[in-house]
From TrEMBL:
It is an enzyme of class 2 (transferase). This is Lipid kinase YegS. Its EC number is 2.7.1.-. Keywords: Kinase, Transferase. It comes from Pseudooceanicola algae. The lineage of its organism: Bacteria, Pseudomonadati, Pseudomonadota, Alphaproteobacteria, Rhodobacterales. Pfam families: DAGK_cat (PF00781). PANTHER family: SPHINGOSINE KINASE (PTHR12358), SPHINGOSINE KINASE RELATED PROTEIN (PTHR12358:SF54). Residues 326-335 have a biased composition (Polar residues).
Length: 365
């Protein structure tokens, strides 16, 4: 059976009682959900489960991050015991970020109603993707304090990445706008991005004080053990230990990128052959560019380098199911041996030795 550490790592505090402490509940949904018949019906069904259990509910809609801050200042939110993020990973991330930053006399717990495409965060918590069953799990659930990941003070729940994946997301949005949201279009965005690939990133990574320089097409910083398991990737133990699993891809050409993509789809990725793994609780990533596109939980933003990844300990009270939904994924066996550290030269990059950047210890990879 899956445990809650699949997504959130270590869980602090004694569990609070179930059922009575969930309400009042404020449901926060993206404004698009208010005009989407499927999402509206799902929220209505979940709301009925909550109200049948005796929880008073209120639904509020948001469109921008600023909206979320305003919603948390409203009287109905101030007296709520639970804020229920109804949506996908992007909505969950946005609500979590707003709650962490909110100045409230008594901050409510956060819960998730999975209505998105992938729902990695909710699935990692063990929540059912059926809205009524998920609501029932939350009613019978428990509230615990958890730590979350941040990058340059921005909250993320599943992953953050630099390199080719943010470019894929950017291309995907352009294709969706022209041709619609079809799965084949998502695949086409990957192909187009790979075909335009010029050269890998040149980065300096400082992980818990240890420094290494890499040329890589992708830096993927994971906080979801569930997501790693789905794709057969290493690093789950770093998540369970309240840290980051940092995967650096090894592809250096278009042909190698296509090969890596196929291995990812077929769950045949191997640590040491296809990517390097770094485990860290504090991570700095310095790029040669002054600003780079960062993707986090499906969103993207151009940010200045360096990118500072930190764990915000005890930052969020989270409503968790007592009986998580069974995990359909399996572990990948037979991972390749870990690769030795590599320090290729990067033209015009942050690779010249600096007195204050010498490693204090050998990196854990």
């Amino acid at each position: 059976m899956r445990t809650h550490t699949e997504t959130v790592g270590k869980i602090g505090g004694a569990p609070q009682a179930g059922n009575p402490d969930i309400g009042p509940v404020v449901i926060i949904a993206n404004r698009k959900s208010g005009t989407n018949a499927r999402d509206t019906a799902a929220i209505t069904r979940a709301r009925k489960v909550l109200e049948d259990a005796g929880a008073e509910t209120e639904i509020l809609y948001w469109k921008t991050v600023e909206d979320l801050g305003d919603l948390l200042k409203r009287p109905e939110t101030a007296r709520a015991r639970t804020v229920l993020a109804a949506g996908g990973d992007g909505t969950a991330m946005a609500v979590a970020s707003a709650l962490v930053k909110a100045q409230m006399p008594q901050r409510p717990a956060m819960a998730v109603l999975p209505l998105g495409t992938f729902n990695y965060f909710a699935r990692g918590l063990g929540l059912d993707e059926d809205p009524e069953r998920a609501a029932a799990q939350l009613v019978a659930g428990t509230t615990r304090t958890v730590s979350i990941g941040t990058v340059n003070d921005r909250v993320f729940l599943n992953n953050a990445s630099l390199g080719i994946y943010p470019d894929i997301l950017k291309e995907r949005e352009s294709i969706y706008a022209r041709w619609g949201r079809r799965r084949i279009m998502a695949h086409w965005s990957v192909v187009k991005t790979f075909l335009r690939f010029q050269r890998p990133l040149c980065v300096r990574i400082t992980a818990d004080g240890a420094v290494r320089d890499l040329r890589t097409p992708l830096i993927f910083v994971a906080r979801s053990a569930y997501q790693l398991r789905i794709f057969g990737l290493s690093g789950e133990e770093a998540i369970h230990d309240d840290g980051f699993a940092v995967l650096a891809g090894r592809g250096q050409s278009r042909a190698q990128l296509f090969k890596l993509a196929w291995r990812l789809v077929t769950r045949n990725m191997r640590e040491g052959r296809d990517y390097d793994l770094i485990r860290a609780r504090e991570l700095d990533v310095e790029t040669t560019r002054r600003k780079s596109l960062l993707a986090f939980d499906g969103e993207k933003q151009r940010m200045p380098s360096p990118f500072r990844f930190r764990m915000a300990e005890g930052a969020l009270d989270l409503r968790l199911p007592v009986q998580p939904t069974a995990d359909p994924t399996t572990h990948t066996e037979g991972q390749a041996p870990q690769a030795a550290d590599r320090n290729p030269a990067c033209a015009n990059g942050p690779v010249q030795p600096k007195a204050n950047l010498k490693p204090k210890a050998t990196p854990t990879i």
